[in-house]
Specification:
The protein is α+β, with helices and mostly antiparallel strands. Helix content is 47%, strand content 16%. Strand 3 and strand 4 (87-90) form a beta hairpin.
C-alpha cells in the first residue's frame, strides 16, 4: 500500500524508493583479516551492496560496532561482523547468508 501511495504521489524517484526499501548492510572488517576479505569478495560476487567499515582505521566505526553489540547483548570476539538492518551476524557464515539471500533479506 505504502509503495502505491508514494508512487501515486510521485514523491520519490524510483532510485530513492529502492534505497528506502532495500536492506541496509554494514560490514565491519580490518585490512589484515583474511576472513573479512573472503566475506567482502563473496558479497561482491553476489552483487550485494554494503558499507565496509574498517574498525582498525575508523575509530568512530569501532565505537559504533561496540554500541551495537552492547544493544544486542553480544560480545565482539573479532571481525568480520555484519549488521543486517540492525541484526548482528558474527563471522562469515556462508550458509546463513545464503539462507537470508533466499528470503530476500540481502
Amino acid at each position: 500500500i505504502r509503495e502505491n501511495i508514494l508512487k501515486a504521489q510521485n514523491i520519490l524517484t524510483r532510485k530513492e524508493y529502492e534505497n528506502l526499501t532495500k536492506p541496509k548492510i554494514v560490514v565491519y572488517t580490518t585490512k589484515t583479516c583474511p576472513v573479512c576479505k573472503q566475506l567482502t569478495e563473496y558479497l561482491d560476487s553476489k552483487k550485494i551492496e554494503y558499507t565496509n567499515v574498517d574498525v582498525e582505521e575508523n575509530y568512530e566505526g569501532q565505537k559504533e560496532l561496540i554500541i551495537k553489540a552492547k544493544q544486542s547483548d553480544m560480545s565482539i570476539q573479532g571481525v568480520p561482523v555484519i549488521d543486517l538492518n540492525g541484526k548482528l551476524i558474527m563471522g562469515f557464515d556462508k550458509d546463513l547468508i545464503e539462507q537470508y539471500l533466499s528470503k530476500g533479506m540481502f
